[in-house]
Inverse folding.
């Protein structure tokens, strides 16, 4: 339905016509429904490209024992110690990013799809953690083959 209003201004002699589109409740509902569908669709699309994992779900890479076969027991123990010290830090970063991404997704669903742009994956850190775990596995295997008395934990 269109509503035409005529306004007269004291200093202007010509009439100005303003046209307002009055929305019915039904049209407003359709617009809001379409906006909601579009919002949910955009959130879905923005989160499709982002994959977040927990540190516990990261599987070890396969690392060749040949990389460590020339190491002495002392060198194996030192490398294992250094890698084991890196794992808690990278695990914390992975889990924090996962938690932040989950919070962004929940907030974006409620408020605005623009918040979904804040979602960042943690694949780079997960790949680093997988490498560390694989290196520890290779060190463990070489230590067993050389009868070294070191304890390598994941």
């Amino acid at each position: 339905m269109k509503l035409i209003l005529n306004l007269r201004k004291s200093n202007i002699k010509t009439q100005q016509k303003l046209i307002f589109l009055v929305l019915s409740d039904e049209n407003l509902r359709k617009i809001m429904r379409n906006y909601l569908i579009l919002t949910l669709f955009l959130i879905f699309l923005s989160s499709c490209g982002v994959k977040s994992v927990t540190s516990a779900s990261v599987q070890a890479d396969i690392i060749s024992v040949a990389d460590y076969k020339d190491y002495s027991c002392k060198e194996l123990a030192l490398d294992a110690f250094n890698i084991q010290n890196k794992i808690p830090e990278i695990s914390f970063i992975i889990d924090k990013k996962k938690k932040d991404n989950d919070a962004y997704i929940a907030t974006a669903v409620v408020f605005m799809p623009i918040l979904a742009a804040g979602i960042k994956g943690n694949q780079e850190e997960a790949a680093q953690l997988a490498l560390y775990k694989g290196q520890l596995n290779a060190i463990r295997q070489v230590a067993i083959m050389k009868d070294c008395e070191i304890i390598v934990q994941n």
Q: What stands out?
A: The helical segments are 25-48, 73-110, 123-145. Residues 1-22 have pLDDT under 50 and may be disordered. The first helix runs from residue 25 to 48.
